[in-house]
Design a protein that fits this description.
Length: about 375
Amino acid sequence: MKFATKVIHAGISPDPSTGAVMTPIYQTSTYVQDAPGVHKGFEYARTQNPTRSVLEKNLAALENGKHGICFASGMAAVDAVIKLLSSGDEVISTNDLYGGSYRTFTKIFARFGLKFHYVPMTDLSKIEEKINSNTKMIWVETPTNPMLSIIDIEAVCALAKKHNLLVCVDNTFASPYLQNPLDLGADIVLHSATKYIGGHSDIILGAVVCKDDEIAKELYFLQNGTGAVPGPQVCFLALRGIKTLHLRVERACENAAKIANFLKDHPKIKSIFYPGFKEHPGHELAAQQMRGFGAMVSFTLKKDTFEDASKVMKNTKYFLLAESLGGVESLIGHPPTMTHASIPREERLAIGMTDSLIRLSVGVEDAEDLINDLENAFSYL
Ligand SMILES: *Cc1c(COP(=O)(O)O)cnc(C)c1O
């Protein structure tokens, strides 16, 4: 089954009891049993829910995995994956990662005796330097957020195999349409399905996909044991959103390329971060491991100040000033004060996240309207 067919059919069949084409919202907390312990595979809705099961099967197919495990949010999915580890274990993570993951690693899991190292993963030797006998996992996010660097998933996985380490890839920025880390050797792929998978800025949802039965068993155990499960209505909305994932991402990527070209030589722009440009250090790699260059574009302004960034962000009409990404509507954001506010300024500057850094999540509106919107906002500088 090809991707465009999978989004509509993988794991999904008309409801057996009524023939409903859309998977029903099974809004129930429990299921009747014929005799003690004799049931239809559903006992209690934290453990199993039919709407969720269909979504999990579909997501597993989209990532070319075997098992899909859904969580109440992307962060709940991150939480579950880290709970595969134990006190004393160490994780090597990319240094340019989602602010919420950084926060949970440093402020929550560090208290429970886990140790995290943050390295620039575009340089493999930086990972190798941190590997020791306690290292258990490598945490990859690519394209990185918000600098849009590209990490070589296949190379990281080869290194991990040599040292018997798990690799988890947060694939939120790429979406399963553009990148499938399990095919490149990763053990676990994670999504904030709040973003491209849901695609309509109306749900909070997380997902993990893997091939290995043992890892899946532990993740299902954590899903049930911790209880951070999504409700059936959210699962329904995700299934609805997924049906157009390929169309949305394709158009968003096209729009992003047009916008990046407009920004590139603009007199108000200092630098631009977009893997679709030949000059981007990760361009070749992105062309290899992704099926498109994504719909995220970051840039800094000539006058590299928060004040100027603020003027731009206050004056766009279609680009809504909001956190998040991956929806049909375009969003504009300021990572230093929004998504990445929990990362100290010195660490931000070290990775090039200067005070005027603006991040765009390009949506599926008309590209010309979006470009005019930005041009108009720049006129306030
Ligand atoms: C949003 C996001 C998360 C967290 O997901 P939630 O659904 O907001 O909990 C994790 N990783 C990345 C890359 C994200 O963009």
